[in-house]
Design a protein that fits this description.
Layout (H helix, E strand, L loop, with lengths): L8 H32 L1 H15 L7 H4 L3 H13 L5 E5 L4 E2 L5 E2 L4 E5 H4 L19 H4 L20 H18 E5 L7 E3 L3 E3 L5 E5 L2
Antiparallel strand pairs: 1-4, 2-3, 5-8, 6-7
Helix pairs in contact: 1-4, 1-7, 2-4
This protein binds protoporphyrin IX containing FE.
The site of protoporphyrin IX containing FE has 19 residues, from helix 1 and helix 7.
Length: 213
Amino acid sequence: DENGVGLSDEDLRAEVDTFMFEGHDTTASGISWLFYCLALHPEHQQQCREEIQGILGDRDTIEWEDLGKMTYTTMCIKESLRLFPPVPAVSRHLSKPVTFSDGRSLPAGCQAAVSIFALHRNRDVWEDPEIYDPLRFSPENSAQRHSHAFLPFSAGSRNCIGQQFAMNEMKVALALTLLRFELCPEPSRPPTLLPQIVLRSSNGIHLHLKKIH
Ligand code: HEM
């Protein structure tokens, strides 16, 4: 720090733990649900594949500049983060009372939680919220939406520090997978939502991968 004091072993362990957990479990959940959504929606899967093929041409590796061009793919990732937010809720211990704009308040000492999962399926904001429709995130369709209607990475001063990294990681994982495989669902074993700290499926997410020749 500014006084030249380093991290203790315990501090270091806490930092490693934070980045291992926040940076691994979350993206694993995000990638799994993304693959699940695209397996169920082959038309969107194919559109992503064509976009990626168009950007990469003959290359089979991804360059930094490619990531910014994946417009349709980004909309598909956001739509799966909406339906299956890897962090389904965030909570806080109130160190002081809070008064909301409608006059209601909560006392200090409360535990307050925001369900990101419920927010993302709020019927007042999202038409047919259960339907997977990446076009919700086109510039035209997002323009009028409240900036806090979609919060997979939370908001405010403690929002996700890794969100750009996470988006890029998901783009790379998806792009390299779609170039090689077709994702198909396994109808006999649909996932069962299990909202722990990270959104999981209690029976796994079973998909078929068909090699593309
Ligand atoms: C799809 C992937 C990810 C999602 C959905 C996600 C979501 C979130 C959310 C909702 C929070 C706020 C938690 C809270 O307020 O209680 C958060 C915080 C955080 N995330 Fe992520 N995250 C993802 C990936 C990552 C990655 C890849 C990293 C690091 C490389 C990372 C590092 C962090 C850290 C360090 C915090 C704490 C920030 C702070 O408290 O100031 N996350 N993340």
